[in-house]
Each structure stands twice: as structure tokens, then as C-alpha cells.
Amino acid sequence: MKDRKGFYSDYVKRPLDFVLSSAALVLLSPVMGITAILVAKKLGRPVLFTQERPGKDGKIFRLFKFRSMTDARDENGELLPDEERLTAFGKKLRESSLDELPELLNIMRGDMAIVGPRPLLVKYLPLYSEEQRHRHDVRPGLTGLAQINGRNAISWTQKFIYDVEYVNHISFLGDVKIILATVKAVLKREGINSGTSETVEDFDGTN
Description:
The chain is mainly alpha-helical. It has one domain. It contains 7 helices and 4 strands, in the order H-H-E-E-H-H-H-E-E-H-H. The chain has helices at residues 7-27, 29-42, 82-85, 88-96, 103-109, 156-168, 172-188, and strands spanning 48-54, 60-66, 113-115, 141-143. The strands form 2 sheets. It has a two-stranded antiparallel sheet with strand order 1-2. Strands 3-4 form a two-stranded parallel ribbon. The chain starts with 6 loop residues before the first helix and ends in a 19-residue tail after the last helix.
């Protein structure tokens, strides 16, 4: 792997993430407040969805998001499939990426970065190839190179190629370009689903 040490990645990226995420939390607090009220009304409480995810070096942290699915269960008390619990309101929440705003707390705390590979499920950890595992050499991000190049509409294999490419070429200018491209993608609502499902298919180590 390429030596990824650099002044920006080692000394600037984390402090800048803290400052920007703190400012964003203040500026977007009215939006987050309204979103929380709507989630409580449409989907019930709690308004936040929390889940363990692997961060830098595979260290587990608790991710925060606004919930976008109901707790509907079958006759045996088991949760229904994700697609059946994802309501029209939940779909709009995901399409707008408003469900991701609580992750600003994760960024401020140091669990995540503004830009980096997206934090995936803990159960995927043993499935990565040696190359793919390098996505955990850096903090996971609110957005990343894969998110501006297809998001959920590309294969897992291609996502991981983008993730490792980002890890090998971290730069201030690169991060700025990804952030600007993310804003464009969110406004155009590109790559929200996989093309075959409203939610993302599980990674099985081969796809």
C-alpha cells in the first residue's frame, strides 16, 4: 500500500472536521429539530437509529442516524424485511439524505470524518479481502468517493475500489471536490437505491 502520511491527513483533516461539524450542527439545528419532530410523528420514537459500525482500524463505534423505518413485525414478533418497513416518508428522508445529519455528532466526537469510506456493518469485517480491509486505515466518512460515483447503484466490489483509492490519495483539494460533488448528487438524488431494491443488498464477500 502507498504511504498515506501527509500534512493534511495527519494534522489538518481531523481539526477541520471538528470545526466544520460543530458549525454545521449549530447552523442545521433548526432542520434537525424539524426532522426529529416529523420522524417522531410519522415513525414513532425513538427518533434516532443507532447501530454499531467499525471505524478506523476496525474499532467499533455507535453510529447515529434519523430512523427511516417502522418497527413493524410479523406474527412471530420478528421484524419485517427492510423494504416492508421503509415507508414513503422514510424513502423521502433517505433521498434527501436528511437521515444522515445526526452523523455530524459522530464526526465531532472523532468516530468519523466528513470525507472517507462509508461505515458499513460489523458483520462484513471478516468478509473483506486484504486489499479491501485498507478502507479501515482511515476514519469512515459522511460521504466518500464511492458516494459521488454511483452510491448504492454500483457493486460492492466497485465501492471498495473507490474506498481504497480514496485512502491512497487523501488531499484537501480531493476532499473539497468530493464534498461539492456530494451536494450535487444529493440535490439530483442520484444513486439512492441499487436499481433492484429500495435498500442495499448485503455484501457476501463476492459481490
